[in-house]
Specification:
Length: 113
């Protein structure tokens, strides 16, 4: 397994197009933690989903409708949320923006072989 070992992130790394107005950029990761920036166009959806990872998300730009379990709130720049493992969560982008996601352990499913 390859881990991103560079100690600095300069913002020029490649964006991965996930389709439907969503793209992702890796900041760094190892086997214990991963941080990614996720860019959303207006009206793009981060589909309701669950995973065994703990996730902390910070709204770096834009405005999002965030659902965690059965609770929905509007979050904007400077806000954030914590998604416990195995709890359904998702977002709808109300104003184009970026989320910074941190996961533990790292999201092996995000990595291409």
């Amino acid at each position: 397994m390859n881990f991103k070992k560079e100690p600095f992130f300069d913002g020029n790394s490649e964006w991965e197009d996930l389709g439907d107005g969503v793209s992702r950029q890796f900041v760094g990761y190892n086997s214990q933690v991963m941080m990614v920036i996720v860019k959303f166009e207006k009206d793009a959806i981060g589909t309701l989903h669950q995973h065994f990872h703990s996730q902390i998300t910070y709204v770096a730009e834009g405005k999002f409708e965030v659902t965690i379990d059965s609770e929905t709130k509007i979050l904007q720049q400077g806000d954030g949320f914590f998604a416990q493992p195995n709890i359904f969560h998702g977002v709808k982008c109300l104003e184009a923006g970026k989320l910074i996601d941190a996961f533990t352990p790292f999201r092996e499913d995000f990595l291409k072989d």
